[in-house]
Amino acid sequence: DWTPVVKYVCELEGDREKWAEKEEKLRNKVKQVLKCDVSKSSVLGPVSLPQADCLLSTLCLEAACKDLTSYRAALKNISSLLKPGGHLVMMTVLKETYYIVGQKRFSCLYLEKESVVEALSEAGFEVQCVTVMPKRSESTFSDFEAVQSLVACKQPAE
Ligand SMILES: C[S@@+](CC[C@H](N)C(=O)[O-])C[C@H]1O[C@@H](n2cnc3c(N)ncnc32)[C@H](O)[C@@H]1O
Q1: Which of 19, 51, 106, 131 is the most buried (most CB within 10 A)?
Q2: Superfamily grouping for domain 46-154
Q3: For ligand 1, is residue 43 a contact (CB within 6 Å)?
């Protein structure tokens, strides 16, 4: 569901119409929705897809992983979906320990910018750009401190 992210970005950018248009355009491009488990080496289970040019992951790995070891493993697992030279576009919350959706509270892996960048490098990515946007106002649904967006290129195997 893209809505929370798109809404969040709208709040940051203050340009709701532009982002609603982008959301619609993106939704129209979706051909198929598949189940994915980033903790498995075959993240798509029995489904096999050609490696992609670009992979987008938003606010997912820190919610899916309980520690840095499983976070590093998850990066390696999702990397298998990308062509060498392909790009991972990833949005991560920093210094978050929980978030709330409706009445439910979820735990989150506490991450700092450096640990994400190091984990990417160890998983065979070259980080090409990183932007950190500090939280602008207090949140009632999470204790995150910032949102980090980055682009990383999968390096060819040596
Ligand atoms: C904070 S939500 C983010 C949802 C959405 N990507 C977004 O940006 O709004 C975290 C997501 O991680 C997913 N998740 C949790 N464990 C996972 C796993 N092992 N593999 C893949 N996704 C997982 C949850 O289902 C949930 O949709």
Answers
A1: 19
A2: Vaccinia Virus protein VP39 (3.40.50.150)
A3: no
